[in-house]
Every structure is written in C-alpha cells, then in structure tokens.
From TrEMBL:
Family under the similarity heading: Belongs to the PP2C family.
UniProt entry tagged with the keyword Nucleotidyltransferase: no
PPM-type phosphatase domain span: 30-299
Reaction catalyzed: O-phospho-L-seryl-[protein] + H2O = L-seryl-[protein] + phosphate; O-phospho-L-threonyl-[protein] + H2O = L-threonyl-[protein] + phosphate
InterPro entries: PP2C, PPM-type-like_dom_sf, PPM-type_phosphatase-like_dom
Keywords: Hydrolase, Magnesium, Manganese, Metal-binding, Protein phosphatase
Glycosyltransferase listed as a keyword: no
Molecular-function annotations in GO: metal ion binding; protein serine/threonine phosphatase activity
Gene3D superfamilies named among the record's database cross-references: PPM-type phosphatase domain
Record organism: Lupinus albus (White lupine)
Top-level EC class: hydrolase
Name of the protein this chain belongs to: protein-serine/threonine phosphatase
C-alpha cells in the first residue's frame, strides 16, 4: 500500500544523448513545418473566462525543431479560482507526466495518457485547497500537422479545413445533451434533475445534485461530488498539408452560434480579425449574457506562408485586412497547385471516464530510473511495496493483471475510487 512516508517527487529522468534525439526528429520529418497564426478576442460579463497561448514550448530543451504550441480556454464558474489555477498549472502537470527521451512520434503517442494524468492531478491539487470554484478546460496542443485536444466541460474546439468541412474535436459534457454522462453520474451516486420551483414545476436544464451543476466533467467543483470527474475526452488528428483553422471558444460563443455558423462567419479573415468577428457575431445573435472568449489558430502550409509586414506604428484593422486580402490573392495560385488531398486523419479518440481504461498499461511497469515505481497521476516515487495498480479491484479491467502498472499512490487511488463512486473523497470544504 502507498503511504505518505518516504514519498518524494520524481527527480530522475531517462537521459538520451541530444544527438540521438535530433536524429529521431530529422527522421520523423515528412512534410514541411506549417506556420501558425493566431488571434484572440473576448467580451467579459462575469470575469470568469481565462485563456492560455504559449508558442515557445519544446519537447527537447534548446532544440527549436522540437517546438510545439499550446492554446487553451478555461471557463470558470462559482468564481474564477479554478480557472486561474488550471491555467497556471495544467501544462506543467501534463509535461511532467510524459517520459523523457522520446522521439516526436513516441511523444505524440504518449500525449493522450499524459493529458489524462495532468487533468486529474490539477483537479486533485486544486480540491486540496478547499475552494468550491470549478472550470471547464479545453487544452489544445499543435505539433506541426498534429493537433491533440483534451477537454472537460463545454468549451468547444472545432477544425475548419479547406473546402468548408467543419469537424468538432471535443464533446460537450452537458447533462442535458449527453445521455451516457447522465447514466455515469447517476450510477456513481449523483442525482440528475431540473430545478424545482414552487408547485413542483421543473425549469431549466438538467443539473447534478447536490450543487446544481449543468456539467458532468470539470476541474474543481468539490462541493458537487467526485462523480463530476476531471478525466478529459481526448482526440488527436493529423491534418493534410493544406492546413486548417481551429476555433476554440467558451460557451458564450457556442450558446449563440453553431459550429458551422462560427466557422462561416470568419471565412476569409486572418486569425486576429476572425476571432473578433466570431465574438461580434455571437454578441449580435444573443447579446452579452455570459463571458465570451474565442481563440482562432490558422495552421498554414509552408508554400502559403506570407512574409509578415513590419508592425505599423498605429494599429489599423481595416488596413491590415486589405493588405491580407491582397496577399492572399497572390498565394491562391500556389494553393491550387498543392498535390496533397485534403484529408484529416484521426490518430486517437477516447472519452471513457474510467482511469483504468485511460491510463492503460506500462511496458516498464511504471518504473523510474531510481528503481522506484512512479504514481501515474502525481509522479511521486513509490517503493515497489507501496504502489497500487490502477487495475486492482476494477471490473473495467478484467483483461489486465492487478500486479501490473501503471501504479497509483494511496491518495490518487482514493481519488480514483471516489470518482467511480466507490468511496467519498475525504476532501472537506473549508
């Protein structure tokens, strides 16, 4: 059994020579690296929407060819504490769950599991603070042509590709719309129903009780119950070299616009103006009834890359738009000559709320270089006698052996059992 004694944070990492990593990176190159252009726009009603844009991340520190970008939206509720905490810690927790010394393809393959671990660790740490705030989280990693999206809640991410095909890369975890999530919540001990007013009349969307939350997955929300889980839906796709446009937005956008309408409303605009236009269209349709936040990311083929103009002394949106339209015209001929077929290849998709299914099994049994076992969630080192297999006692992992990894520390095992409705979390609200 795991105990708090002797547990320490993981400091040991597999060391691989830099030359080997660089060779792996060069070997994995098959298409030119796309250019990213992004823009952000928002209108605040409650002050609970937060976002993250980080374009200088590196898989191999110091190696610019291993760079990737992160874009995320966190739509808080019952205060902004959970959204702020998640923005500050989620990325580091995800990266901390990835093994060291991986080539690009291996890194992308390990990413979905690391995202699950990072989301759960962030939720666990925030709940230990004793605050009742909660947040959605839509977390997007763009590594060349591969897009990986992890999400809890209803802050949607869509992909608009050349030709007008719109693909949703997230699942809305709303009790009103998701039958599977309603069944999971009730089977884990939650109650689902509408708000009842005088006379027994039920109004509004379906909610989870106690707490009255409309979502079935989020980070935080410790006052609602552990059956509101932080385990994300994850989807990973690879774009063709015609590129595409990502639109990531909070529900202030999606309650007003369909995915297709949002994509269509900003066709022909550069990313910054596109984000502004989506927000403008949502406000025109529904008014400012909620925080409204949008990030637009354009993944542009290298043949279509435009030389950026020097920044003007004074910003002029109309001039920027006219300049962009003229330069787009000069690249249309190149676009028509692209030989690649516009196909989005699905690499991974999983939405189960069961940790045993999401964490899978480790070939190395979850060992660190120190010879100790590692908790798959919090990355703490464990002696072999301390770790508890994520599969132990789970009816959802009958094909796995309970003595095989990945392993959990006692605290993370308690968290897992609470999320599955097998025991209370033990976390108290201050």
């Amino acid at each position: 059994m795991a105990s708090g004694e002797g547990r320490r944070q993981r400091h040991h990492h597999d060391l691989v020579p830099l030359a080997v990593l660089l060779k792996r990176e060069m070997k994995s190159e098959r298409m030119g690296k796309p250019t990213l252009r992004y823009g952000h726009a928002a209108q605040s009603k409650k002050g609970e929407d937060y976002f993250l844009v980080k374009t200088d991340c590196q898989r191999v520190p110091g190696n610019s060819s291993s760079s990737f970008s992160v874009f995320a939206i966190f739509d808080g509720h019952n205060g902004n504490a959970a959204a702020i905490f998640t923005r500050e810690h989620l990325l580091n927790h995800v990266l901390g769950a990835l093994p060291r010394g991986l080539g690009r393809d291996e890194w992308l393959h390990a990413l979905p599991r690391a995202l699950v671990a990072g989301f759960v660790k962030t939720d666990k740490e925030f709940q230990c603070r004793g605050e009742t705030s909660g947040t959605t989280a839509t977390f997007v990693i763009v590594d060349r042509w591969t897009v990986t999206v992890a999400s809890v809640g209803d802050s949607r991410c869509i992909l608009d590709t050349q030709g007008g095909a719109v693909t949703t890369l997230t699942v809305d975890h709303r009790l009103e719309e998701n039958i599977e999530e309603r069944e999971r919540v009730t089977s884990s001990g939650g109650e689902v129903g509408r708000l009842s007013i005088v006379g027994g009349v039920e109004i509004g969307p379906l909610r989870c009780w106690p707490g009255g939350l409309c979502l079935s997955r989020s980070i935080g929300d410790m006052d609602v119950g552990e059956f509101i889980v932080p385990i994300p839906y994850v989807k990973q796709v690879k774009l063709s070299n015609t590129g595409g446009r990502l639109i990531i937005a909070s529900d202030g956008i999606w309650d007003a616009l369909s995915s297709e309408t949002a994509a269509k409303s900003c066709h022909g605009l550069p990313a910054e103006l596109a984000a502004m236009q989506v927000v403008k269209e949502a406000l025109r349709t529904r008014g400012l009834k909620d925080d409204t936040t949008c990030i637009v990311v354009d993944i542009i083929p290298p043949d279509n890359e435009l030389s950026p103009a020097p920044p003007p002394k004074k910003q002029n949106k109309l001039r920027d738009l006219l300049s962009w339209v003229r330069s787009r015209g000069s690249t249309n001929k190149v676009s028509k000559n692209l030989s690649a077929i516009n196909i989005v290849e699905e690499l991974f998709e999983e939405g189960s709320a069961m940790l045993a299914e999401r964490l899978g099994s480790y070939d190395n049994s979850g060992k660190s270089t120190s010879g100790l076992f590692v908790c798959a969630i919090c990355q703490a080192d464990l002696a072999p006698s301390e770790g508890i297999s994520v599969h132990a006692g789970s009816i959802f992992s009958i094909s796995s052996k309970p003595w095989q990894g990945p392993f959990l520390c006692l605290d993370c095992r308690d968290k897992k059992d609470a999320m599955e409705g097998r025991r209370p979390s033990g976390v108290k609200v201050s």
